[in-house]
Amino acid sequence: MTTKFLSISIILITIMLFCQAQTQSITFNKVYQGTINGKLEIKLTLQAKSGQLDGVYFEDNQGYDIELSGKIDQENNIELNELDSNGVTMAKIKGKLIKDSIIGTWQSMNGDRAYPIVLKETWFNIVSLPKTIAGKYVINYDETSEFCKCKLEILISKSKGTYYYHITSEKRNKKGKVKISRDSEANYISFEGLIGDENAGELSGDLSDDSIIIQNTGNSMNYYVRLSECDAKYIYLKKVH
After folding, report:
1. What is the span of the domain harbouring residue 93?
2. Is residue 1 part of a domain?
3. Residue 66 phi/psi, 5° resolution?
4. Is position 9 within any domain?
């Protein structure tokens, strides 16, 4: 009886150690894109090391990352906690890694909302956002054309996860929402409802740490003027602290 018990114990321990080793061998660094509830488009980065998961995801056109932390087991079941800025779990993602896809459910912590989440691995390279986007941006005259004398200021604020702008110059005083977008090379910022002066759409620019660069005019093949009060092809704005 004792010999049989020992044999069973050894087998169980062996299986446990094997499963643990399998989990510890799961290591990857991947990017996924897809939807929550078939509507909300997101991109997600996920790093696995010894069964532990860390990453972020963001909604398209939103200027902030949502932190993720969790685990993956030897059967590729995934559990992720969605964390706020204080590290408090606000929602959970449970699913399964199937080849190049993650299929599962996003659920709020109080359980009143639960939506399907479907993600597929992508080549997309996620560029990190600036640590802080909100602030006051003024013209960097050291970078902008010496002929540009306009007094342009953009104040960006954040409320309930949404960014807003207030732009002032000799010619305009306007407020509205900010949109943030990304591609594999850079972050971009656009100002909803702020239409350029000649043949231009909404004002937009490149967004990086403590700076915004706006191409203000086009060329003979693609003529436009965005801010006519600023005599410069490129407007370089820097955040003041």
Report:
1. 26-121
2. no
3. -110, 120
4. no
Q: Among 151, 126, 136, 152, which residue's Cα sits nearest to residue 211?
A: 136
Are residues 81 and 139 located together in one domain of the fold?
A: no
Q: Are residues 98 and 148 in the same domain?
A: no
Q: For residue range 4-14, list pLDDT tens digits in order.
A: 555 555 555 54
Question: Tell me, what CATH number does 148's domain have?
Answer: 2.40.128
Of 145 and 152, which is predicted with more confidence? 152
Give tens-digit pLDDT for 33-49.
999 999 999 989 899 99
Query: Is residue 139 located within the same domain as residue 233?
Result: yes
- Inform me whether the pLDDT recorded for 74 exceeds 50: yes
Asked if residue 20 belongs to a domain, the reply is no
Domain boundary among 72, 98, 121: 121
DSSP string, the chain: -HHHHHHHHHHHHHHHHHHHHHHHT--EEEEEEEEETTTEEEEEEEEEETTEEEEEEEETB----EEEEEEE-TT-EEEEEEE-TTS-EEEEEEEEEETTEEEEEEEETTSS-EEEEEEEE--PPPPPPPS---EEEEE-TTTS-TT-----EEEEEEETTEEEEEEE-SS-EEEEEEEEEE-SS-EEEEEEEEE-SBS--EEEEEEETTEEEEE-B--SSS--BS-TTS--SEEEEEEE-
At 20, the pLDDT band (50, 70, 90 cuts) reads: very low
Tell me, yes or no, whether 169 and 236 share the same domain. Answer: yes
Global pTM? 0.70
